[in-house]
Amino acid sequence: MQNLIKLIPLASIMILMLFAFVIPLLKKKKHVYKLTLVIMSLVTVINLIHVVYIALNGGYLFDVGHFPAPFGIVLRIGEVESGIGLLFCFINLMVLWYSYFSLEKEIKSNRIGFFHTLDFLLLASLLGIVFTYDIFNGFVFLEVSTLAACGIIVVKDKKANIKAAIKYLILSSLGSGLVLMGIAFVYSISGHLSMSYIHEALIQNAEGKHNLILISMILFTVGLGIKGAMFPLHIWLPDAHSSAPSPSSAILSALVIKAPIIFLIKVYYLVYGTTILSGTVVLDLVLFLGVLGMIFGSLFARSQKELKRMIAYSSVAQMGYIFFGIGLGNKLGLIMAIYHIIAHAVTKACLFLSAGSFIEQTGYKTIDEFKGIGKEMPVTLGIFTISSLSMIGIPIFPGFISKWNLAMASIESGKILLLFVLIASSLLNAVYYFPIIINGYFGEDNLVGKVFNSKIRPVRTLLPLIILSVVMVLAGLFSGFIIEFIGRGIYI
Hints:
76% of the residues lie in helices and 2% in strands. By secondary structure, it is an all-alpha fold. It has a two-stranded antiparallel sheet. This is NADH:quinone oxidoreductase/Mrp antiporter transmembrane domain-containing protein. Belongs to the CPA3 antiporters (TC 2.A.63) subunit D family. It is a multi-pass membrane protein.
């Protein structure tokens, strides 16, 4: 039984890749939706079983094929990897469920199967990035995820989407090139691609190669920073996230920009290790860019007129919190960076899908046009409100848990002045989310001559959003358990 459970990470990737190529064989849209929901439910359930197994028995290494490392491919599965894997599967399931009721209104009917093929390939590659213990295979999965992500952006087949996809492809290709150069540098020093073997070789051969090691670390940081929307390398994100179909926007923000950050954390601590990492300026650079992202991402979000574009810039700010936690360089900071990946993924999926519902039902796009929307779509605005409160950092919500513990990590690291940055960033979050909420409930400008609740959606179409919002609240209420679980598998 244990051997079967240990197959789950590899099986999840293989199932998704296999059915990605089965989907185009189906002619009816109804069959496409049913198959994708069944497969995603199956993959989510087996990953939930896997998390329970990891919680009871701890992590393990899994050899893919007949050869162990350093000659064979190895997956490293611990608390962090299993938890993130379940998170990705669950959110993708909710997004696909939501798309069942809305996707045809945003893309052409004959592209429905193509979207789901790309989605399965994308999720499989993201899981591969999370589970891998081999830096070159991580790079291969990064490339697959880039191409699939471009596909779910351009699937809408509008001029804005094509432009955004090209920008993302060019910048992401630049990031991939830098990552590949980083791999070449560490391979030239170590002669290995498996993370543990690279680490051992770097420890033994570090003398006289400090500059080479530093260059490789910077290459990984910038390359993966582009893919993970690190400020100011985020310039592809606003166009891609705002122009894509709402299910694609949710996947891009909740999942696609998170996997490269998990890979970066693994490179820092499993390839280089704390001893080498702490002897460089890389973490200080990451901390500085995280601070800039927190502040300027919020300032840019505040200046936006379109709702989805504002939420997209908010993602830049929220990624800043993740880089902030990594840059602190202590255990609590790293734990909270991973916790914020979870918190932001669930919350931002809610925000993009809620915004998509507003746009779909009203045809509006700009923030001012949604004044009074709470009269017509009270449940959807309620979900948007709960998600916004989490982003701002209101107590009990996961956003507050992240910010509070990041403040504790800042104090622990002796960087007291960073508390003012956290406070300022939270206030800026409130500045652009609260007006939308208040005007949504109390704005009267757009209500003259309208029938209240005329835009309300059936409950069955809102169930994915309701479930996501409930899980988001539970992530805050049971944050102690989640943080303890992450802490058991953290890399420091």
